[in-house]
Structures are given as structure tokens and as C-alpha cells.
Specification:
This is Peptide methionine sulfoxide reductase MsrA. This protein is an alpha+beta fold. It has helices at residues 11-18, 41-45, 66-75, 102-118, 145-149, 153-169; strands at residues 2-8, 24-32, 52-59, 84-85, 88-89, 95-99, 128-131, 135-137. It is globular.
Length: 179
């Protein structure tokens, strides 16, 4: 098993996407990149700790590659908005790839460069690519949030449309129970 760590907006939204991929064994919501040890959600939301809301994804590289995870990362959020995803605003919602090794760093930089050069986005990509220096799991109530709270208004109006779009675009990469 290998691990990928991505920050691409609210972890309630992004967790629901990555959990459905074949080869993904575990998705844990957490915080990375800040300067406060073991921060709380309230501290991270205060925009003073330097952390991003992230997913730590445990995956089987024989079933899904890091490149494929990067594809899902880039295509399921807007990497051109600084410290913002939709109505979620603040540095905790920044677009960031936290790499675990040199290979992940090179693959992320290569993918970002290719996207920039392709003109896929009207605005420049602001996603940062940083070494993972710390990671803290989010509180228990954040884990499996969409699975447990799918009918909550935020989930129904924000998370569900994102998940539905993801399922259409990546239907060939879904676990059987989501196909």
C-alpha cells in the first residue's frame, strides 16, 4: 500500500469522491502543512494555523496509480482559485499536493505543467506542490462525513452534485458498489 495526500477544498466533498475509487483502501480526512501541533477543526477554520484540509489516501498501486489519483485530484476541483473552492473560502481550502517522496513530487509537477501548457484552464493554476511535513487526522465526526450525513443540506446541495459529476466522468474507475 502507498499513501497520497491532497488538499482540494472541503474534505467532506473530496473524501466522498476518493472513497469510491477502485484500489483505494482508506480515505482519512485531516490537516497538513501548518505550524500548530494536532490542531482542532475550529483552529484550522480560524485560518491562523497554516493547515489545509486534506485527505490521506491509502491505495493499492497495482489497482490504481498515483497518476490516476492525480487525474481525479485535478479534475474534481478548481486549481485556479487561491484559497477557495466554491463558497468555501480561506487558506484551509487551498489546492495543494503534499508529496511523500521524490517520485510523487515529479509526477505532480509534470501533471501541473502539462495542464498549464494545455490551456485547460482560463486562469493560471495556483496549486502548490509541497513535501508532507506533518499530518493530523481530523476529528472522528469528520470521517466518512458524506456517507453518514448524505441528506444534510450541505451534503445534498454541495457534496452530492460533485459526487454525481465525478461518477459520470470516472465511471470506469469506480468500485463495483458505486457503479
Amino acid at each position: 500500500m502507498e499513501i497520497a495526500t491532497f488538499g482540494n477544498g472541503c474534505f467532506w466533498c473530496t473524501e466522498a469522491v476518493f472513497q469510491q475509487l477502485k484500489g483505494v483502501e482508506k480515505v482519512e480526512s485531516g490537516y497538513a502543512g501548518g505550524h500548530v501541533e494536532n490542531p482542532t477543526y475550529e483552529q484550522v477554520c480560524s485560518a491562523t494555523t497554516g493547515h489545509a484540509e486534506v485527505l490521506q489516501i491509502t491505495y493499492d498501486p497495482e489497482q490504481i496509480t498515483y497518476d490516476e489519483l492525480l487525474q481525479v485530484f485535478w479534475e474534481t476541483h478548481d486549481p485556479t482559485t487561491l484559497n477557495r473552492q466554491g463558497n468555501d473560502v480561506g487558506p484551509q481550502y487551498r489546492s495543494v499536493v503534499f508529496y511523500h517522496n521524490e517520485e510523487q513530487k515529479q509526477l505532480a509537477e509534470k501533471y501541473k505543467l502539462a495542464l498549464d501548457e494545455s490551456g485547460a484552464f482560463d486562469d493560471p493554476i495556483v496549486t502548490t506542490i509541497e513535501p508532507l511535513t506533518n499530518y493530523y487526522p481530523a476529528e472522528k465526526y469528520h470521517q466518512d462525513y458524506f456517507l453518514r450525513n448524505g441528506s444534510q443540506p450541505y451534503c445534498a446541495f454541495v457534496v452530492r452534485p460533485k459526487v454525481d459529476k465525478f461518477r459520470k466522468v470516472f465511471k470506469d474507475k469506480l468500485k463495483p458498489e458505486y457503479s
